[in-house]
Fold:
Amino acid sequence: MRGAGADLADTLPGGFMRRSLSVSAVILLTALASASATAQTAASSWIVDNHGRTAGTMEVRRTRDSMIVRHIYTDRNRGGRVETRYALGPDGGVRGGEQRAVLPDGSAGPATERFEVVGDSVRFSFGTAPTATIARTASSIVGLRGGTPFEQAMVARTLLALPDRRGSMIAGGDLRASIIADTTFRTNGRVQRARLVMMQRGTTRNHQGVWLDEKGELLATDVQWFITVRRDVTALLPVFRAIELKWRAAQGEALAKTAVTATNTHIAIINGDVFDSEAGVLRPAQTVLVRGDRIVAVGAAETVTIPAGATIIDAKGKTVMPGMWDMHGHTQVGQQAGLGLTQLANGLTTVRDMAADMDVAVSIRDRERAGKLATPRLVLAGFIEGPLAWAGPTEAIARDEAEARAWVSKYAANGYKQIKLYNVVHPDLIPTIAAEAKKHGMLLSGHIPRGISIEAAVALGYDEIQHAAFLFSNFFPDSLYLPTMRAYSQVATAVAPTFDVNSAGMTKLLDFLKARGTAIDGTFNLWIGGGGAIVGAGGSTNQMKADSAYMQLIRRLYAHGIPLIAGTDNSSGSTFRRELEMYEMAGIPAPRVLQIATIDAARFMKDAADYGSISVGKVADLIIVNGKPSEKISELAKIETVLRAGRRYDVDTLRARLNR
Ligand SMILES: [Zn+2]
Structure:
């Protein structure tokens, strides 16, 4: 959606323009001209905010015949480095645009996207794809599909000027804008206007928002980990945030009402083959009776009395199993829109969040538990990071023992079950954090902070490690620094193809982890296969060699009896089944894989009294699969129905609700 405004290019001098162009094009050109003209002033320079810390900037430079936008910010070892350029005509109108990456030396890389206006059509190209030409219509928005927040604001401004506030990006799909808030604020002694404009692409549920000032220029982007905001209004971010989160909350609750399938107080699932996750076996032709949010009976049909008026779900030939746990999720504001529905549709009834903004995560957790949201139940781990430029996207920075304790206590007070440490936490703070976490009965896990080994982190109190790649980078400690600070993932990617997983060193590490009962949240779906490769086949390419190494690692972890924790590291759960398929491919029997995704996760989080198996008294978190996942994990592609605390979600309905 980060594209330039409608008909940017069609800016021939004076009268001609007025004769051939639609009203909206005229509006856009004027707005663009004014925007770029003022971009020179201080008021129009933007910073990229990372939870109160400045992570980067957005600058606009304009000359008589060009405009250049640069949006650069640091996000760990990555971040945005984008430049967009526009050719302007003598009347200030845009003739064309292109997008480039900004290289480490500050120069601009080759164009990754380009468009040029040629009469009533536009020529555009993406990457290496051949140039295409498309005719413009009155509502087409000509601009870059990628771009920066500057372009985002331009598209929003353009849509507001179009009839019905609808337009279509050249080669980018339909867009619709709506003004969610229109308010004023005082800055620099004068009253200014601020509008929150939400843009919706096509019929999807995802809304992307921008705050615009009275001239339609960017004030701030919407709630995300990194927010681009005009330098002089950073103090307004909390106000903007409150307004947006309130709106998204209402959207989420309205959506939940349409996503759930009504049932009676009692639900009877009959004739289904129940996967007994505690025993790891299938019990054929059972009846499961649910009342409200709890399972009240499970057994052979003749042993369960179904009350009159119960909602009946016939699961003949289908598998009824506990809902699954994505143990490595990241909660975004979009969880209340499409992401939560997608997670449910993937059979996830619980998600353990491993880093999110506290206000967003706590609000979604609590409203879901109150039955107001159609998302999985959330179990929260509190993210803590150290104070360096490489610090991850969080407000929870611990510079000393006092701050570290304060964050652990704050998380504990908000019902968090775990603490997760990140890349640049000072190792000397780990004992303090471990002691405080234990005091609150919380688990401790994380990335392995720079400067220490896995063995040291576990000795200092870690119960679990995030990301299997650390089991490789652990053997190359200096590589994490020399010649520049490098992410563990880069090191692991470099060494994995040649790594000897059967080495004595790895055996010693696995023996150590086994002895300490340390669990591994491997997120293998991140490291294996780049999605496409034939996993585990070995072969010539580095990726295939790395795949084999990771598959062998899964095998060795399992053979050592080291607990495997299944997670995606994303917000939709889209790769959860793939994570489980890799465990199966590595030789772990399918029933055992299902146990990892259900009862093992519940036990690890000390939640097995209420979750993780289909047993009398437990919360009715279960899924109905039109297949045999306890024989083949890929059968989890056939999930039909999900019960979350007795609330019924049919997957067809969930998928339909993803689009308005
Ligand atoms: Zn993560």
